């Protein structure tokens, strides 16, 4: 109860946060039931802030926030990308495998905020200077299900994979504040739950 009251007080401060408007990426996931196929998200630091020779000047943070279909934040995480680096994560294995509710949702929304480092490390609870989707590009795959009618008036559900490059969306100051505080809330009450991650082999904080 004490934790809940503290968090309510924090959320009451959201409108007071002085944050500049930026841009970010918003994607969805569906048919998230595990199995042989998983949905992937690929994030590339395009080098807007510098070349590999200037790291850590050109490094950025990729902050990821995972929601279910009921708009509840389930998990959050961040990865540090050097210029021209690729980071990959998978929805079932790394984004929804450790939700604050301990439930794996079948569908939901993923928000990706790219920004300069807020300090020595990346943390999804503190987004850096004005978020800018132009700092990177994001590609994502989806599992699409379609009913295929077969000869003899029979049919079967067929699952196939599509991939698209994501388009930027406007990130309001209010939404940026909510993402940071919602992440803090999830991590605070999660007691180890509520954290997501990137594929093993890529740097993450």
Strand share of the residues?
35-45%
Number of domains: 1
- Report strand order across the widest sheet: 4-3-6-1-9
Order of helices and strands: HEEEEEHEEEEH
Extended strand count:
9
Q: Which structural class should the secondary elements be placed in?
A: alpha+beta
Protein described:
- This protein is of the alpha+beta class and 205 residues long.
- The protein has one domain (2-190).
- 16% of the residues lie in helices and 38% in strands.
- A five-stranded antiparallel β-sheet has the order 4-3-6-1-9, covered by helices on one side. It has a four-stranded antiparallel β-sheet with strand order 5-2-7-8.
- Mean pLDDT is 86; it is low at 1-17 and 200-204.
Question: What does this entry show, briefly?
Answer:
By secondary structure, the chain is of the alpha+beta class. It is built from three helices and nine strands.
Question: Helices, strands, pairings?
Answer:
Layout (H helix, E strand, L loop, with lengths): L1 H10 L10 E8 L10 E6 L14 E9 L4 E9 L4 E5 H5 L12 E9 L19 E15 L3 E12 L2 E4 L1 H18 L15
Antiparallel strand pairs: 1-6, 1-9, 2-5, 2-7, 3-4, 3-6, 7-8
How would you describe this structure in keywords?
single chain, five-stranded antiparallel beta sheet, four-stranded antiparallel beta sheet, about 15% helix
């Amino acid at each position: 109860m004490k934790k809940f009251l503290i968090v309510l007080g924090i959320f009451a401060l959201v409108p007071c946060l002085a944050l500049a408007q930026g841009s970010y990426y918003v994607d969805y996931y569906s048919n998230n039931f595990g199995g042989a196929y998983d949905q992937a998200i690929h994030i590339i630091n395009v080098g807007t802030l510098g070349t590999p020779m200037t790291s850590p000047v050109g490094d950025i943070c990729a902050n990821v926030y995972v929601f279910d279909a009921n708009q509840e934040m389930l998990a959050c995480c961040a990865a540090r990308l050097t210029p021209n680096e690729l980071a990959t994560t998978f929805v079932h294995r790394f984004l929804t495998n450790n939700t604050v509710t301990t439930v794996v949702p079948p569908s939901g929304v993923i928000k990706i905020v790219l920004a300069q480092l807020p300090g020595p490390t990346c943390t999804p609870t503190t987004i850096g200077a004005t978020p800018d989707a132009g700092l990177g590009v994001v590609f994502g795959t989806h599992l699409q299900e379609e009913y295929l009618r077969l000869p003899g008036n029979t049919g079967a559900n067929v699952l196939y994979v599509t991939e698209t490059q994501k388009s930027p969306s406007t990130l309001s100051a209010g939404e940026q504040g909510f993402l940071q505080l919602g992440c803090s809330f999830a991590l605070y009450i999660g007691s180890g739950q509520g954290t997501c991650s990137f594929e093993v082999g890529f740097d993450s904080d």
